[in-house]
Specification:
Blueprint (H helix, E strand, L loop, with lengths): L1 E5 L7 H9 L2 E4 L13 E6 L2 E6 L2 E2 L11 E2 L1 H19 L5 H12 L6 H15 L5 E4 L11 H11 L4 E5 L8 H5 L4 E7 L17 H7 L2 H7 L3 E4 L1
Parallel strand pairs: 1-2, 1-8, 2-7, 8-9
Antiparallel strand pairs: 3-4, 5-6, 9-10
Protein name: WbqC family protein
InterPro entries: WbqC
Pfam family, one: WbqC
Length: 235
């Protein structure tokens, strides 16, 4: 059983989906502390031909709260949503796959979300559905494990609970874990890194690691499927 555990991100970059595609079970890590400068409620898009950071308005966000406790600021969100959709339309309307992705985005934002964890998790699932990535999705907040442990011990316990044989993480998390501790539990610890999937963005140069929306706008499903396997694995 291959398992990955990640915080829910808002329409995350291609590496996040590589992680999902490489595993059998994907756990949204939603009962850990919220990070204000993380990717739970924000992401980069290609607006006005340059990298632009967009953040969803939240109601009293605090790093002392768990992700699943953070609420969306509903009044500000409605204003933000109109502005965001207008920016997507203006900046991506000439992209080759605009029509189908515009429909996907509008369908997504027609739903009502109260918490940022719900919105971000559903953004991931919507893209997986479009790309026909069928995986088992779980949320850590619904699992029965001891939360009064350090970060590595919690990850190990969740893996043990799910009878994992391989635990996958993105390469940026290498400093968080010790392979020997996973080996003691008969779990192989693996780290993934995107090789740097490039594609035409109708501009000079290439802006990497933008939201998956950028990837979807410029690539068809077969091309993205190829990108999903364009990574290296280290232990």
């Amino acid at each position: 059983m291959k398992v990955a555990i990640m915080q829910p991100y808002f329409f995350p970059y291609i590496g996040y989906f590589q992680l999902i595609a490489a595993t059998d079970v994907f756990v949204f890590y939603d009962d850990v502390n919220f990070i204000k400068k993380g990717w739970i409620h924000r992401n980069n898009f290609l607006f006005n031909q340059s990298r632009s950071l967009v953040s969803i308005p939240l109601k009293k966000p605090s790093q002392n709260k768990k992700i699943d406790e953070i609420l969306i600021h509903q009044e500000n969100f409605e204003i933000w949503k109109k502005k965001f959709l207008k920016s997507i339309f203006q900046n991506y309307k000439c992209s080759p796959h605009f029509e189908e992705i515009w429909e996907l985005i509008n369908s997504f934002f027609s739903k009502n979300f109260t918490s940022i964890s719900e919105l971000s998790m559903e953004s991931v699932k919507a893209v997986c559905s479009y790309l026909n990535i069928k995986r088992m999705f779980l949320t850590s907040s619904t699992l029965d494990y001891n939360r009064n442990q350090n970060a590595e011990e919690k990850i190990l316990e969740i893996n043990h609970l799910l009878k994992s044989s391989e635990y996958y993480n993105l390469s940026g998390g290498k400093h968080l874990y010790e392979g020997k501790n996973f080996k003691k539990k008969n779990i192989s610890l693996k780290f993934m890194k995107d090789k740097g999937s490039k594609y035409p963005q109708q501009r000079k140069g290439f802006e990497a690691n933008l939201s998956i929306i950028d990837v979807l706008m410029f690539n068809d499903i077969p091309a993205i499927t190829n990108m999903l396997s364009n990574y290296t694995i280290t232990e």
